[in-house]
Every structure is written in structure tokens, then in C-alpha cells.
Amino acid sequence: MTSxxxxxxxxxxxxxxxxxxxxxxxxxxxxxxxxxxxxxxxAQRAGVNHTSIYRRWGxxxxxxxxxxxTRLERDSPLNDTGSLRGDLLAWAGTSVASIRxxxxxxxxxxxxxxxxxxxxxxxxxxxxxxxxxxxxxxxxQRATARGxxxxxxxxxxxxxxxxFYLRAIFGIDPPTxxxxxxxxxxxxxxxxxxxxxD
Length: 198
Prior knowledge:
By secondary structure, the protein is an all-alpha fold. It has helices at residues 14-30, 39-46, 50-57, 60-74, 84-99, 102-113, 119-145, 153-170, 179-189. The longest helix has 27 residues, at 119-145. It is elongated and about 55 Å long.
């Protein structure tokens, strides 16, 4: 009679679990032939028990929001280039590089999937969006401190931020050259640093 060998499990720290689960979400979203995104699939990909995910995040919506927030905060703030145009070009260049990658597209998809109709989670999503806009607001504040006259935040969202998200949502890659410069110059030429802003 043979005795069963006990199964050895490697215990992960809470941060290791979080990192593994986040990466599993990104991997599943980035895989065009991957399975549907759900907590059991995420748990299997991450090598953790699905109950750990439910215990920590409670729902898929909350997990997606956490992934989005973490990735966005990791990418900011940007370095000060010394000018409004330089800062906006740096932000736009980073955005172009991001949406050309499977992970970048996955992040945009996660943003969309984390938009349920529940009023409570809508408020959470608004907080995540404000964090994303914090890097843009930092650029505006630095420009003002230098004596430049930056466009209003809404104008930057409409003319600089929105085109990147629109392309990412529909899977349309930006032009290979000159796209950040095109958007930034259009923005600044229509009421930016060289024009008066009401």
C-alpha cells in the first residue's frame, strides 16, 4: 500500500497574489483567442484560488477597476520637459506607444468593461478617471507656473486624449510618424499656449 504524497503549495504574499491576478487579467484581455473573462479563468491563469479573488475584490467590476487604476498610476507622472508643448508631446508619445501594445489595448478594454450601470461603481469609475486626468492637470499646472497659457482640461480631453481612446477601442493603430505632433499642434493652435483662453 502506497501512501499519498502531500501536495506542496507555494504560499504567495498578498502583493504577489495581486500582481499575478492583475497580469492574468491583462493577459486574458490581450489574447484575441483567449477565453471569456471571468473570475475562475483569471484565477486559473494567475495560479490562485478563485475564492481569494472574491475575498479581495468582491466582483469582476471591482477587480477591473483596480487593474485600470494601478496601470494608469504606474505611468504617471511624466517628467517636466520645460514647456507645455514638450509635456503634451511626451504624454501623447507615451499614449501612442501604449496603444500599440497588446497590454495597452487590454487596458482600454478593461476601462470599458469596468463601466457597469451600478451607481456605486459608476462613482468608483469617476474616481479612477480623475486619477488618470491628474497627469494632464499636472501638465497644465506646470505650464501655468512657467507663465504659459494652457488650454482648459476639457479641451485637452476632447482634442488630445479622446482620439487615442477612440483608436484603441476600435483597434485602429495611430499613424507610424507624426501623430502626437499633429494632435498637439492642433490643440495648441486652437486656443492653447499661444492664444487667450477665457
